[in-house]
């Protein structure tokens, strides 16, 4: 037996009375001090710059409005090299030698794929010749 949820509509007079009130943001503990009218509370809390988010590097929880500046210097953030098509952590750096080694590894992997594909095609051709 399933439960059925039905959103209740409040009388306009109650919504109007609530709209006249200001509420604190759920992110006030993180520094958001904006007084928020009732009718804007839901959207504000979804997009508030004081929400907690994780750094893409260490997955450290921090205030969203500080993430961009933090990730610009965080050594644990992974960066992508378009030349050798590899990811590396900022703290480890990526110089020309790394790039050459990355391209070599990429070429070796591609060669292995081609070699395996060639073996499969060769096996298919031999099977067709037998039949």
From TrEMBL:
All copies of domain TRAFD1/XAF1 zinc finger, residue ranges: 38-75
Q: Which InterPro entries match?
A: TRAFD1-XIAF1_Znf, Znf_RING/FYVE/PHD
| Matching Pfam families | TRAFD1-XIAF1_ZnF (PF21366)
Gene3D superfamilies annotated for this entry?
A: Zinc/RING finger domain, C3HC4 (zinc finger)
Q: Which residues form a coiled coil?
A: 104-131
Q: Which UniProt keywords apply?
A: Coiled coil
**Disulfide bond listed as a keyword:** no
Presence of keyword Coiled coil = yes
**What name goes with this protein?**
TRAFD1/XAF1 zinc finger domain-containing protein
Q: Which organism is it from?
A: Didymodactylos carnosus
